[in-house]
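Exam revision sheet. Question 4 asks you to relate a sequence to its structure. Input first:
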Amino acid sequence: MDFDLTEEQQEIRELAARIFGDLAGHEQQRKLEARLAEEGADERFDRALWTALADAGLLGLALGEEQGGAGLGLLEACIVIEEAGRAAAPVPLTADTVLGALPLARFGSEEQQGTWLRPAAAGQAILTGAWATSGGDPLRPAASAQRSGGGWRLEGILPNVPAGMMADAVVVPARSALGTGLFLVDAGASAVTRHRQEATDGRVEAEMELAGAEVGPSGVLVEPGPAGDEAHRWCNERAVAAVCAEIAGACQAALDLTAKYTAERVQFDKPIATFQAVGQRAADAYIDTEAVRLTAWHAIWRLARDLDASAEVAVAKFWADDGAQRVVHAAQHLHGGVGVDRDYPLHRYYLLVKHLAPALGGATASLLRLGGVLAQAPA
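Answer key, structure tokens:
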């Protein structure tokens, strides 16, 4: 298939790369981290960068023009997400634009969209989605839903909600006797308790406890039932694909750093890149990086066209866990002691991949999911 970008998509990539390069480079992030530590901030979040992304229209690429967006789609949103991965950017881009806003754009009512999507595109509200599960089945929600008057009562503990401590609203899948439903929950509601979870890469997630959270008709995206089951799968696959795009960006950045370092690092009067063992390890990392990138974009391309992509998403997530971890291990190994120096940017990519690789199902879960897809395919 043709992975070339259109002229418009290439311009989006260049704009995103320029913003991240100007505002989220290594020195800028060092200053941000020092300032946040001095202020005692409890979240690694760059508000200035978030505002710049909003002002450039990059937070609303996948939203309709009537929702304050650009009227494009998942593919364009993932272009920006991949660039965020290249910078290990301290903003909840994937959580907000795909895990939270995309389900609202697809399944929300005009009232729900009007309330949340325009502020989200302007960077004035942060959305997220609780797509992680506590078990092995990615399509078995952690929350349950029971009828309550004219609405629903939600119970359960939602693990690893990205940007959950700062989010204004959360899209929550919940299971019932009728099937899965999608609900929009006010993150500050009295029946919602958020427990801080420190992520490996310095981000902060939340374990959200729903203790009889009442959701009226205005908070229902999709009623529990077969339509809700399909909507949950739709959202989950796009969330997984977006995470894969972010990991692909981080792998490419780690590989680029490694290529530069090994070309400049001299031992025995020769750059270490010319040593056979170094070259072989770097070549393996290059192949893994390409596999992570190509499988991610294959899945994203199919999803953007509303084609069935269950197998492609599972393959992409396998490589985003298994292959990506080999990439950052090789990058750190080839850097030697420099690879663990926190004054050098490689550690951000290593920690980002370590955090994201198992998110929404790691290698084993992805293979089991792929096996299930293949088992149901006609012979």
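Marking note for examiners. The first strand starts at residue 127 and ends at 129.
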